[in-house]
Amino acid sequence: MDPLSPLRARTITLVGLMGVGKTSVGKRLAVALDLPFRDADNEVETAAGRSIPDIFADLGEAAFREGERRVIARLLDEPPHVLATGGGAFMNAETRALIKSKSVSIWLRADVEVLARRVARKDNRPLLTGKDPVSVLRDLAEARYPIYAEADILVDSGDAPHHVTLDNVIKALAAYLEAPLP
User: Fold this and answer.
1) CATH of domain 5-177
2) Considering the entire predicted model, what is its pTM?
3) Mean pLDDT, to the nearest integer, of 153-159?
């Protein structure tokens, strides 16, 4: 029997603040487990026919979150895959309940200062537009960490390279599912 097969039985959903590596680690995890990778933000943009910054600017955050909820619900009805969610997706009680019932959720966590360095490299974060990233991320961490803590698994990503975080995710997932490591 393939030792990784128990890890492929359910969708694996990554949650956490912006910049923590949900997409980067998620892509690597999908390759390691031979599963498809889906990025909820990309799927929302495709469904809406516009970028997330444009959705925020034209329709507001509430409309974005509703579209995000619908897209994630659709993705969770698909065969097992690795799903990277947007930072705020897990905050929606309905989305969180769907993620918890239809997948294994993993909270990737890193220090705010690490996240601020990472997100400073891009200007596509609507929640950061014209604001101090450290201050915004601290506020988000304070509000979101108690909710993220409801995830099935916690993996600290820290300032380590993505392959180290990937190894830690696979180990934590195997332990959670009581599956043998390859």
Assistant:
1) 3.40.50.300
2) 0.90
3) 90
